[in-house]
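Run folding on both entries below.
>entry_1
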Amino acid sequence: MTDKKDLTKPSADTGSPGSMIDSFLQEAKRLGPLENGAPRPRLVFALDATMSRQPTWDVACRVQGEMFAAAGQTGGLSVQLVYFRGFNECRSSRWVADPRSLTDLMTKIGCRGGQTQIGRVLRHVRTEAGKEPLKVLVYVGDAMEEPIDDLCAVAGELGLLGVKAFMFHEGHDPDAARAFKEIARLTGGAYARFDAGAPQTLSELLRAAAVYATSGVEGLTRLASNSTHAKALLSDMTERKR
């Protein structure tokens, strides 16, 4: 399977849920440049939207604004949403700097059954990082159903491009844990597990990832002084460098 060059290509069915998503993405294209003209750090927010993920998708809709709130204290953040679901569907939004835009998009998307497409996400991030600097990939998922060696090969390339993968794992699936930890290690990022029944954990993890994207290790270290989840991510990043 090869990646689509345009992940937001309009659907031929203008009345389908996919076409409504396409309409939103076309609207997002008209977002103006930043007022001060300065580039914002870029973060890709990638989620598994297969059927088992609906409860966590709903949680992510509620708490994703924490990334923008944390980043806003140091100049802001540009975020791109990437998700996969169903059969061979993998899409990305335009870059946005407003949590309301991302929430509007996410609430229009329903989860559908299908296999994981983590490899496509990683290759998409590689392409984006080749265009402009990209600091962080945040990935939220609960499973891994692909050859782990293929994922690790692309993860190694992301590490060379300076992209840190923050792999947030819902549940206890051992194959997912092994793959997510290795992707984090190869990129110099971090791994953390969370429970969908504790939305505050995911909220804190997203805040920590955004702080790293905007302020690096120094900012994450400051946040770690009053956030146990930020402290755990910082410790994980440090240990994976050894």
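>entry_2
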Amino acid sequence: MKVLIDTNIVLDFLQDRQPFVEDAVRLFEKVDAGEVEGFIAATTITNIYYIVRRAAGVQAAKDAIAQVLTDLHICAVDRSALEQALSLNFKDFEDAVQYACGMAYGVDAIVTRDASGFTDAEIPVMSPGEFNRRLE
């Protein structure tokens, strides 16, 4: 199963954000075990670097990016993805870009804590807890 993991879930995992980290850890354990193929949009990398650097410094940000690059597939964000994102008319452009990437890479689901950002999505959208329960 291929899933696009929203930025907030990756940050929950990397920054040990309570009370969300447990579900994020279980998701990443499934990725590490090969039960799930995890994908993120390339733009998520720069967002993660920026947020982690501000919170914990440059080395922590570099370590976070190295871990993400080891664990997840990176969806290219090219002109086609950006044009697709614009045509979606999502309220949040970042969510639209992630959704367009998920469509381009044929993901089976999007895992996020903010499903409201993906209204009218054709790809199933669920929380990490919902996703983990479906795989148990």
